[in-house]
């Protein structure tokens, strides 16, 4: 990660708004990271940093578990609900009346069954992009499952009053794997997601995992702006070009909740960036975060980090040890310049408060011994070049703006192959590139944050979201395995997906050479 030397440019950018004083209460190393984040965190031009530091709120809220019915099905009812958010009444789109949606838990080898019931009101209204409102469906973001039939098939849709039954074969899933679920109807994803439709989906640990007995908290980080008792509406195509960032940044629907930890205790935090467009650069004052898992599952060992970038749609699994004796400490999102006229903010997300009797927990030395980077001769592998672009209110993949399956860029791959994907970003903002079904390993990243590139090009991490820096690129090793069918890849700034930065991926049956 970045060193401790502060450049003159970084210091001036911070001092111009008095942010040195705002950081003074932090540990010196974290204060330096906060000061340095605005100028170079995203490889941008720097600028004014604003500090959002709400007072500590209520106790940390663990998302309730979804409950199976008598036939073993999780039912998710999509409906409007009047809830309190940070003390303000707001009508949100919800799963089962909850914000975020309930936690769906399953195990490797299970047949996960979900029934989606669309209880939204019937309407003929369209959004400003011209797409019908209140049609929805379900995408299990991160699961390595079939994209066809009743599985993760985003071509299925439910109008108000309709029901969709899903069944996912988890025989190829990874234990201890954090995912989440949300809608995926092209043209309305951003509004429904912004309005509240997202929830966690966890594949349980193996009984022998060194993490199985660790106190665990799932954290859905989501932002929102409330206007007249509803999520602020989309009123211009420029909001789709930039991507929405909310005034409230919450963990599990709460602003700066207080999470208790016993001195000497180790906790596991499974974190989802469920924001539409906001990037997070996470840092925990005076503590090291031990990264033990990423989008695609658990790593071989803990990777100690002082900061880590989490693009929209990315997930991390970290261990935190209470090794500071006592006190209260802030989990921050430090300034990050993603481009596209986004603001530079330092935000307090959570307060970690020491409380209770002393413990003597240890960080496990080994997490998943099977995790490894792939060592393959790349010379003979099929290669794809994918270019992300934006122009005149539209997003593009290889020069084509997605409007439907009959008008999109389509990539074709043979099941059983490994492929090398070169993903280029020809725009002035970062794009989190997400591919369904098959996670990848990162071979190289050109541009952007050097710590992000160093981590994901060396750790045995499987990724289904990779940040492609503005005017930069990434090279990915993509295994095409286990499942055929038609699926998608797209930018996970979901507004960009809605305006066309999405392609179709045809997985074709062939010799299983893996």
Question: Would you mind describing this structure in some detail?
Answer:
By secondary structure, this protein is mainly beta. The chain has three domains: 50-58 and 211-354, Cupredoxins -  blue copper proteins (Immunoglobulin-like), CATH 2.60.40; 74-203, Sandwich (Immunoglobulin-like); 383-508, Cupredoxins -  blue copper proteins (Immunoglobulin-like). 10% of the residues lie in helices and 38% in strands. It has helices spanning 8-15, 19-23, 28-40, 189-195, 237-242, 450-456, 494-498, and strands at residues 49-52, 74-85, 88-95, 104-106, 111-118, 139-141, 163-169, 177-182, 199-203, 215-224, 226-227, 230-231, 248-251, 258-261, 266-273, 280-284, 289-294, 297-305, 308-310, 315-321, 328-333, 344-354, 383-391, 394-397, 410-414, 418-425, 431-435, 441-446, 465-468, 473-479, 485-491, 502-508. Strands 1, 14, 16, 19, 21 and 22 form a six-stranded mixed sheet that branches. A six-stranded mixed sheet has the order 13-10-15-20-17-18, with no helix packed on it. A five-stranded mixed sheet has the order 24-23-26-30-28. A hairpin with a 2-residue loop joins strand 23 and strand 24. The protein is globular, with a radius of gyration of 22 Å.
């Amino acid at each position: 990660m970045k060193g401790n030397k502060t450049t003159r440019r970084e210091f001036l950018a911070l001092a111009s708004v008095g942010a040195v004083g705002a950081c003074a209460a932090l540990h010196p190393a974290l204060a330096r990271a906060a000061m340095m984040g605005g100028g170079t965190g995203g490889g941008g031009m720097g600028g004014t940093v604003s500090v959002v530091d709400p007072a500590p709120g209520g106790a940390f809220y663990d998302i309730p578990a979804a409950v199976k019915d008598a036939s073993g099905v999780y039912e998710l009812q999509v409906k409007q609900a009047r809830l309190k958010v940070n003390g303000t009444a707001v009508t949100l789109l919800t799963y089962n009346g909850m914000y975020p949606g309930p936690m769906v838990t399953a195990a490797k080898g299970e047949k996960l069954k979900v029934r989606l019931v669309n209880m939204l009101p019937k309407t003929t209204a369209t959004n400003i992009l011209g797409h019908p409102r209140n049609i929805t469906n379900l995408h299990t973001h991160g699961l390595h499952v079939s994209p066809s039939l009743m599985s993760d098939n985003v071509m299925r849709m439910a109008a108000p009053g309709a029901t969709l039954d899903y069944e996912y074969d988890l025989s190829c899933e990874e234990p201890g794997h954090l995912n989440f679920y949300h809608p995926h109807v092209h043209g309305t994803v951003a509004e429904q997601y912004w309005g509240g439709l997202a929830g966690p989906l966890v594949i349980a640990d193996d009984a022998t995992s060194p993490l199985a007995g660790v106190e665990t908290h799932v954290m859905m980080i989501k932002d929102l702006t409330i206007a007249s008792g509803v999520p602020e509406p989309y009123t211009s195509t420029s909001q789709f070009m930039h991507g929405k960032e909310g005034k409230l940044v919450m963990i599990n629907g709460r602003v700066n909740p207080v999470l208790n930890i016993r001195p000497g205790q180790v906790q596991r935090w499974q974190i989802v960036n469920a924001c539409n467009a906001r990037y997070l650069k996470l840092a925990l004052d005076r503590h090291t975060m031990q990264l033990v898992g990423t989008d695609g599952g658990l790593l071989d060992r803990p990777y100690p980090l002082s900061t880590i970038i989490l693009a929209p749609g990315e997930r991390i699994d970290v261990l935190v040890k209470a090794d500071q004796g006592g006190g209260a400490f802030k989990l921050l999102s430090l300034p990050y310049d993603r481009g596209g006229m986004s603001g530079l903010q330092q935000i307090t997300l959570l307060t970690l408060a020491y409380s209770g009797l002393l413990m003597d927990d240890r960080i496990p030395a080994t997490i998943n011994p099977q995790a490894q980077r792939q060592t393959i001769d790349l010379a003979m592998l099929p290669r794809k070049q994918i270019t992300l672009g934006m122009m005149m209110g539209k997003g593009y993949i290889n020069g084509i703006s997605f409007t439907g399956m009959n008008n999109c860029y389509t990539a074709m791959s043979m099941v059983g192959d490994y492929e090398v994907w070169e993903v280029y970003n020809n725009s002035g903002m970062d794009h989190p590139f997400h591919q369904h079904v098959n996670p990848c390993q990162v071979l190289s990243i050109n541009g952007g944050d050097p710590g992000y590139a160093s981590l994901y090009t060396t750790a045995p991490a499987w990724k289904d979201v990779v940040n492609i820096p503005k005017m930069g690129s990434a090279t990915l090793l993509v295994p095409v395995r286990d499942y055929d069918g038609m699926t998608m890849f797209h930018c996970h700034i979901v507004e960009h997906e809605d305006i066309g930065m999405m392609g179709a991926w045809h997985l074709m049956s062939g010799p299983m050479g893996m």
